[in-house]
Amino acid sequence: MARKKIKFTKGELKKQRDSKTQFQRYLPILQLKQQQLQLEVQKTEARLKKLKEEVEQIKEDMVSWIGVLAEPKIDLTPWVKPKDVVTSTTNIAGVDVPVFKRADFAEVDYDIFSMPLWVDSAVDEIRRLSELIAETDITQEEHNILNRELKVTMQRVNLFEKVKIPESKENIRVIQIYLGDQYTNAVGRSKIAKRKIEVLLKT
């Protein structure tokens, strides 16, 4: 990356010092945010893993009896598909993420006398599966948001640590050298001028 052109003035020196101070003050905040996000991403990944394992376990348990759902005139869809997935929002390290609360289902209104005895258990089990799948989807969305924010924060931390702060320090060093040389030259010219004046006064 090409170095940004700087002015070799006292005003520019103050500007570079102020920038360095600002970067150094903000960097620990970014680093703390990065640590918080890393921890939350790990927690979310653990929750996702557990949820997926539960989903797979229920599916395996259902294999032995799921075939009965193929019986004619038995459609449990209206009672096992969520009519609404309720979520809330929470703020984690400055980032708003969705939080799963519950899945709402339609009221069961089939005739219990005309349905097989296993239907109630099937509805409960499939609802549990549907709720877990909904929770997994929301948790995955939460994980995606946190992961994206973590990547952006890591990029900013690297930018401050490896580019902005070193760049400001180098600019300060270069400007100080230039201004020091200018001062030395000015002092030298002043001495020469004084000697010339003294010589002229003696003649």
Question: Descriptors for this entry?
Answer:
single chain; 203 residues; mainly alpha; Helix Hairpins; 2 strands
Question: Summary?
Answer:
This protein is mainly α and 203 residues long. The chain is built from 3 helices and 2 strands. It has one domain: Helix Hairpins (Orthogonal Bundle), CATH 1.10.287.3240.
Secondary structure blueprint with pairings:
Blueprint: H1 10-62, H2 77-80, E1 84-92, E2 95-104, H3 119-202
Antiparallel strand pairs: 1-2
Helix pairs in contact: 1-3
CATH class: Mainly Alpha
Rg over C-alpha atoms, rounded to the nearest angstrom: 35 Å
Structural class: mainly alpha
As for the number of domains, it is 1
Give me the number of helical elements.
3
CATH architecture: Orthogonal Bundle
Give the biggest beta sheet.
2 strands, antiparallel
Strand residues, percent = 5-15%
| Percentage of residues in helical conformation | 55-70%
> Could you please say which CATH topology applies here?
Helix Hairpins
Give the terminus-to-terminus CA distance: 60 Å
**Topology order in helix (H) and strand (E) letters:** HHEEH
Q: Return residue spans where pLDDT drops below 50 for at least 5 consecutive residues.
A: none
Which whole number gives the mean pLDDT?
87
Number of E strands: 2
Q: Order of strands across the biggest sheet?
A: 1-2
What would the principal axes of the Cα set say about the shape? Answer: rod-shaped
Structure description:
This protein has 203 residues and is mainly α. The chain has one domain: Orthogonal Bundle (Helix Hairpins). The chain has 3 helices and 2 strands, in the order ααββα. The chain has a two-stranded antiparallel ribbon with strand order 1-2. Helix 1 packs antiparallel against helix 3. The longest helix is centred in the last third of the chain and has 84 residues, at 119-202. The model has no long low-confidence stretch (mean pLDDT 87).
